[in-house]
């Protein structure tokens, strides 16, 4: 069974959305090519860990390119672990290259697209997202990253991916807010923070 990370839409930014996410518990691999990193993380959630625990698949899978100033950096890939798990108690990976860590919740600008999530297509979508942020007068916090929702075996024309970046909270006005379908009933994960006070139609 596949579940999705819950979020709330705070407002729309042209073709993008400003979303609020709760804190994520991640299993992350650094500086490996994507295929190797994916297989390593999949083995971890499939029971290759100290407790033999099998975790349900949670989408999206997160990926960030390497540091532009470091030609040796291969970037990182993360699997989101199910909500309710604790960093202290979650099963430790058998492979020491897998790092368990948390990503603090907050506001993220996100743009959805279909097709190949690589090369010129990905660069173009990232540029589109940053343009929407600039026009809305928001400042990003950190570098953009990719969120993949489909199996690597899914044909390109059927793939749904998103490019996202953390946004520095500020005075963004009162806008509508709504939860994604999987996030309904999980409002406790998203402290109000003074952003938005009515639901989207």
Can you describe what's shown?
The protein is an alpha+beta fold and 201 residues long. The chain has 2 helices and 13 strands, in the order ββββαβββββαββββ. It has helices at residues 34-45, 119-135, and strands at residues 2-4, 7-13, 16-21, 24-30, 57-59, 61-64, 76-80, 98-103, 106-114, 145-148, 160-166, 176-179, 198-199. The strands form 2 sheets. The chain has an 11-stranded mixed β-sheet with strand order 8-4-7-6-10-11-9-3-2-12-13, with helices on one face. A two-stranded parallel sheet has the order 1-5. The radius of gyration is 17 Å and the shape is globular.
Task: Give the SSE map.
Layout: E1 2-4, E2 7-13, E3 16-21, E4 24-30, H1 34-45, E5 57-59, E6 61-64, E7 76-80, E8 98-103, E9 106-114, H2 119-135, E10 145-148, E11 160-166, E12 176-179, E13 198-199
Parallel strand pairs: 1-5, 12-13
Antiparallel strand pairs: 2-3, 2-12, 3-9, 4-7, 4-8, 6-7, 6-10, 9-11, 10-11
């Amino acid at each position: 069974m596949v579940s999705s990370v819950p979020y709330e839409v705070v407002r729309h930014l042209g073709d993008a959305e400003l979303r609020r996410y709760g804190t994520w518990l991640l299993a992350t691999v650094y500086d490996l090519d994507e295929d190797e990193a994916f297989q390593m993380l999949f083995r971890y959630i499939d029971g290759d860990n100290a407790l033999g625990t099998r975790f349900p698949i949670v989408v999206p899978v997160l990926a960030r390119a390497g540091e532009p100033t470091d030609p040796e950096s291969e970037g990182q890939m993360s699997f989101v672990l199910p909500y309710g798990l604790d960093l202290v108690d979650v099963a430790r990976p058998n492979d020491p290259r897998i790092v368990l860590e948390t990503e603090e919740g907050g506001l993220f600008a996100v743009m959805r697209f279909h097709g190949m999530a690589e090369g010129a297509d990905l660069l173009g979508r990232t540029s589109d997202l940053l343009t929407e942020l600039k026009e809305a007068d928001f400042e990003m916090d950190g570098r953009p990253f990719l969120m993949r929702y489909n199996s690597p075996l899914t044909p390109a024309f059927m793939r749904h991916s998103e490019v996202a970046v953390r946004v520095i909270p500020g005075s963004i006005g009162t806008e509508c807010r709504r939860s994604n379908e999987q996030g309904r009933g999980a409002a406790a994960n998203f402290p109000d923070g003074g952003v938005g006070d009515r639901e989207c139609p």
